[in-house]
Amino acid sequence: MLASLDRGEESARIRALRDAVESGLGSRLDDAAFADMAAQTLVNAIFGARVGHRGRRRFTAAAAFAALPRHDSLLRRVRDVFEPRNMRDEPFAAGVHELCELFAGAGVQNIVAPSEYRGGLDDPLLHFYERFLAAYDPALRGLRGVYCTPQPVVRFIVRAVGDVLADAFGITPGGRGGEVVVLDPACGTAAFLHEYAGAVRARFIERDDPVAWRSYVRDVLLPGLAGFEILLVPFVVAHLKLVLTLRGADLAGRTRERFGYELGPQDRLRVTLANALEAG
After folding, report:
1. Which pLDDT belongs to residue 280?
2. What span, in angstroms and rounded, lies between the C-alpha atoms of 190 and 227?
3. Neighbour count for residue 102 (Cβ, 10 Å)
4. Cβ within 8 Å of residue 243, ≥6 positions away
5. What is the 3-state secondary structure (H, E, C) of the chain?
6. pLDDT of residue 55
7. What pTM, to 2 d.p., does this model score?
8. What is the pLDDT of residue 120?
9. Could you read off the pLDDT of 84-100 as tens digits, one per residue?
10. Which of 28, 81, 136, 206 lies deepest, with the highest CB count within 10 Å?
11. Which residues of the chain have pLDDT under 50?
């Protein structure tokens, strides 16, 4: 990709993606920075798709493409680049297929629950980018502060804030007393947003009310969840993780069927690629 950028021979789809990323960040990227960002996004998006892949059909580039969310305009630009028919014309197509073959040969049980993620890092989709960047570009990891909060800490903070809302303000999200807006100005892979959504969903599961849950997601939860992220990779992973959470990928059997929520054409996850420290 970098070579085609250097020669000014990149495809219209790559140019459109670059324009969308630069518009979100409010700054220009040089060729090397954009090519590196796109390559990182490719690797992590394929990994995320593999984690969410179920069934007996072999994992392929087409399956990875199908797993990419489409509810956001920037994500649609990413999808345009990696759509199988479009990608045939891209110089990195062979690398994509090779990477998908590599992930297809990996036992999903070893991806979803490897031993190194136990003891606080028990969701590989949320934490893979941190470890990937530590090996690939530790300087960028330090510059951008890519250090994921362990999930037990995330759970404690979400529950503690919930207790304060209930005790001090009489508000129980998904229950009584009104609703709140949850904003994470540097959301990374959306660990806090994911935990909050799961905690509220648990209340509806306890009440055994899937109809009310779906209405709540559409009318309250989605409008009230917001996050900003400056890096493209965690932005994409955040959307993918939240889509899987709403779909009920972490729930079992019948509960997943009853409480899963598929984003419709009017739904939007308010996780935005932006620099939250930029004025205006």
Report:
1. 54
2. 8
3. 11
4. 69, 71, 263, 269
5. CHHHHHHCCCCHHHHHHHHHHHHHHCCCCCHHHHHHHHHHHHHHHHHHHHHHCCCCCCCCHHHHHHHCCCCCHHHHHHHHHHCHHHHCCCCCHHHHHHHHHHHHCCCHHHHHCCHHHCCCCCCHHHHHHHHHHHHHCHHHHHHHCCCCCCHHHHHHHHHHHHHHHHHHHCCCCCCCCCCCCEEECCCCCCHHHHHHHHHHHHHHHHHCCHHHHHHHHHHHHHHHEEEEECCHHHHHHHHHHHHHHHHCCCCCHHHHHHHCCCCCCCCCCEEEECCCCCCC
6. 72
7. 0.84
8. 41
9. 888 888 888 888 889 88
10. 81
11. 114-121
Give the pLDDT confidence score for residue 108 in this predicted structure.
62
Place of tokens 């590196």: 36
Q: How many residues does the chain have?
A: 280
Q: Which candidate, 276, 76, 124, places its Cα nearest to that of 187?
A: 276
Q: List the structure tokens of 153.
A: 């800490």
Taking the C-alpha atoms of residue 64 and residue 61, their distance in angstroms, rounded to an integer, is 5
Which pair of tokens denotes residue 256? 């997943």
